[in-house]
Design brief:
41% helix, two-stranded parallel sheet, elongated, 265 residues, alpha/beta, 10 strands
């Protein structure tokens, strides 16, 4: 009776915004698994949901948090039998592309930056600077590797070798995830996994994305012009809502801006 009075329920697509860098205990422009978990839960359990759309604008960050979020998305998709679509904004690179691969289909703008399937570690060498300033640094450890990759001493060959081993492990996990999710869609060639990134127009023939398009028109084409959208956003702390960044938030903001800057954003 209610269906005849009010007509059939309009298709619902829930939209989860994944914007910023991926960092443990993320604040400000960054986020982690704990921060997005409530949004994802609501997205997949919304009444009458037909699909979950991930709106991604992310330059990467923590590989562990990327893996946790990706696994959570797949777990919820399987549990609730809901398909997931990813839409890349300015950038879905490195950890951002890891998140995109959690979707069943990936779309991007022709100019979106996509890919960067690699691992990077950055530091600095300040041993000469503190020597010129006459500063004596005192470090005592129990365990020969506790001062691993110390920026205040000359770079050690064994530290670099160990770091590259760690990076190789994580890189392999990243490659396995992309192959698992993208499968036969990927073109052959190791250049896909050397850390390179492409604009969406060039990523499409490589199999990194499924099409060029934007969230609303693609979803309406899939589910009809009467499709409704429910956007879910992260809750911010009171101090952050009032516009006052704390020290931790400011540090995350600087790190996040640094990651975006790698892609010219």
């Amino acid at each position: 009776m209610l269906g005849r009075l009010f007509g059939p329920r309009k298709p619902l697509v829930t939209v989860v915004r994944l914007s910023g860098a991926i960092m443990p205990d993320g604040r400000g422009r960054s986020f982690d698994d704990a921060a997005v978990a409530p949004m994802l839960e609501k997205a997949f359990t919304a009444r009458g949901v037909k699909a979950v759309a991930l709106s991604i604008n992310c330059p990467g960050g923590s590989p562990v948090q990327s893996a946790l979020i990706g696994a959570r998305i797949r777990r919820l998709a399987a549990e609730h039998e809901v398909r997931v679509y990813a839409f890349c904004g300015d950038v879905a690179a490195s950890g951002g592309f890891w998140l995109a691969c959690a979707a069943d289909e990936i779309y991007a703008d022709a100019a979106s930056i996509v890919g960067s399937i690699g691992v990077i570690a950055q530091s600095f060498g300040a041993h000469e600077a503190i020597a010129k300033l006459g500063i004596e640094r005192r470090v005592h450890t129990a365990g020969g590797s506790k001062s691993f990759w110390d920026p205040f001493r000359p770079e050690q060959a064994e530290d670099v070798e160990r770091l590259k081993t760690l990076q190789s492990r994580i890189h392999g996990q990243f490659i396995d995830w992309v192959k698992e999710r993208r499968g036969a869609k990927l073109t052959d060639g190791t250049e896909l996994f050397d850390g390179s990134f492409w604009v969406g127009e060039d990523a499409l023939p490589l199999g990194l994305i499924d099409g060029l398009g934007h969230l609303v028109p693609v979803m309406k084409e899939r589910f009809g012009n009467k499709t409704k959208f429910k956007v879910l956003a992260r809750r911010r702390g009171l101090f952050e809502r009032l516009g006052g960044p704390g020290i931790d938030t400011l540090a995350d903001e600087i790190s996040s801006r640094g990651l975006f800057a790698r892609y010219g954003l």
